[in-house]
Amino acid sequence: MKITFRQIDAFQTLITSGTVTKSASLLGISQPAVSRLISDLEKSAGFKLFQRVGRKLEPTLEARLLAEEVAQSMAGLKRIEQAAQNIRDFNHVKLRLVSTPSFASTLAPLLIEKFAKRHPNVHVCLDIQSDDERIEWMVLENQDFGIAVSTGRNHNIATHELLSTEAVCLLPKAHKLAGEKNISPKDLAGENFVSYFEGSIFKSDIDKAFNVAGVNRLTHYESKTTAAIIGMVGAGLGVSIIGSGFGAGSFDPRCVTVPFTPAICYKAEVLWSTQRSLSAIQNEFLSMVKEEYSDSKS
Fold it and tell me: HTH lysR-type domain: which residues (predicted)?
């Protein structure tokens, strides 16, 4: 006969209470039901568990040995219950994000802050990589989500739009073009230009606009981040083109922005891999993103 959890429960309760009457009350069952459970357990175990001493039932030596094993097993069961609760509450769960520098100081903290309000126990790791293609590769390999501008070239990458912005011309406050209502590539002919590093989608689109216009720039200065470009323009090292919604947190009061034509539109997006299913916490993050940032494509 198989030992059941109900038999073990009755056994533990009887050892603690010492009487069938108290055990029945604690378990919420009848006295005959307690006696039957103990009798069935004795049959399954193959030895006597209790002997009557006066008005109480005293456990035998064999029962005490069995009780020690039961106690260890129950402790293990409680650990399993606790582990299940931790998993359910996302305790000790890690969410891995990777972002371009432009979004690492602006959009990424906003997303993490919103998510932390919903799931304060989740451990969030934010990595920073310099170009969008590398972020797509990392999302396919081992990162949960990327925050970047999708190249649109990888069919295994899904995206959700966070915001869109148009490029603006960034100038030192004292620059001769600072008061203009609009700036085109021809207006910047021969200017010292602070550029993004190779590999940036921003750089590719900006270069295309100048090449189409047949305008040459003096590119003595380059940087990976919008914040650094803003700083260099503020120091008077040149002019640049940046996305109007990027790097806002580090905007330099020594700079001014002027609308740029032709329009260059950028979209900040959350990226994830379609090659693997999302975990519970990844689904929670994605749901939060979709609630907080309604995709214009939806």
Answer: 3-60
Residue 1's CB is within 10 A of a number of other CB atoms, namely: 9
Q: What is the CATH number of domain 5-88?
A: 1.10.10.10
* Cα separation, 4 vs 273, whole angstroms: 46
The fold of 94-162+267-292 is: D-Maltodextrin-Binding Protein; domain 2 (3.40.190)
Q: Which tens digit of pLDDT belongs to each residue from 63-88?
A: 889 988 888 888 777 777 776 776 66
CA 201, 207, 213, 217 dihedral sign is positive
So what's the pLDDT on residue 244? 64
Q: How is residue 226 written in tokens?
A: 């919008």
Q: What residues does CATH 3.40.190.10 cover in the chain? A: 94-162+267-292, 166-266
More confident residue, 184 or 107: 184
CA distance 235 to 253: 11
Decide if 132 contacts 150 (C-beta within 8 A).
yes
Q: Which fold has domain 166-266?
A: D-Maltodextrin-Binding Protein; domain 2 (3.40.190)
